[in-house]
Amino acid sequence: MNRNKWSNVIRELLANKLGITAFLFLLVIASAAALAFLSSKDPNQINVLDRLKPPGAGHWFGTDDYGRDYLARALYGGRVSLMVGFVSMVFATSIGVAVGVISGYFGGLIDSLLMRLLEIVMSIPSFLILLLLSVYLKPSVGNIIVIISLLMWMNIARIIRAETMALKEREYVMYAKASGQSSFGIIIKHIIPGLMSVVIVSATNNIASAIMMESSLSFLGFGVQAPNATWGSMLNGAQGYLAQAPYLAIFPGVLIFLTVLSFNVLGDILRVGFEPKLGKR
Predict the structure, then answer these.
(1) Residues 234 and 220 sit within 8 Å (Cβ to Cβ)
(2) Which of the 8 DSSP states describes residue 279?
(3) What is the DSSP letter of 135?
(4) Domain count, the chain
(5) What is the full DSSP assignment across 4-67?
(6) What is the rounded distance in angstroms from the CA atom of residue 207 to the CA atom of residue 56?
(7) Which of 139, 127, 85 is nearest to 255 (CA)?
(8) 101 pLDDT band (50/70/90 cuts)?
(9) What is the span of the domain harbouring residue 175?
(10) pLDDT tens per residue, range 83-92
(11) Model pTM score
(12) Contact, 233 vs 223, CB < 8 A?
């Protein structure tokens, strides 16, 4: 990927106030989650005397139904949610790129088999796949990453396949074939570098999707188990206190919303930065 494209991305970001805001928000929330251990509050410390205290000086986000500091739980929960989103994105993107490149480059029977497999998987409702996987996989961070990765790789595989089919007809790829380079060498040296802008944009959007999916899974009880928290599990725990303590749902809900929105905004900026013509439609 040449420097001009990254210059376009930076220029697009600096010209977009919403993009700068999204970038700064993600920087702040990621830093706060990473440095959550510096907080003086223990996210799992129960204090029934402080049960359901509203936001105030002692507890900026209030306390939950067990008297635990809600800000500390939000920070530690954000660490898990962001980590799950990032790692799931890496795995899902890796699977999608591998399947898409192999299918698009080799074509023929391999392409037909892989695309039929992809279509079969995509035709099965995600919720059904989720229920089936949850039966055989115990709730844990590792298993939730596996579930999300298995549910997210299909769309990027289709995008990468289409891009690969276009790239393999380029002159430099045709010359590499004619010069006797191996298929593996052509894919590594020519195809994948040409796909990097598409991969980066898709990966950014996949992080947002993974965070939303993790929140949904945790909300349904398939995520991190008590006493640890994620933003989704915090929303789950707030269900019975919406009238009495609405802040229990507001804080994690707003954090999920702003984080997903910020990744989507940055994904759009990356898309326009890498392909300026798309922004002129």
Answers:
(1) no
(2) G
(3) H
(4) 1
(5) HHHHHHHHHHHT-HHHHHHHHHHHHHHHHHHTGGG-SS-TT---GGGTTPPS-SS-TT-B-TT-
(6) 33
(7) 85
(8) very high
(9) 81-280
(10) 988 999 999 9
(11) 0.83
(12) yes
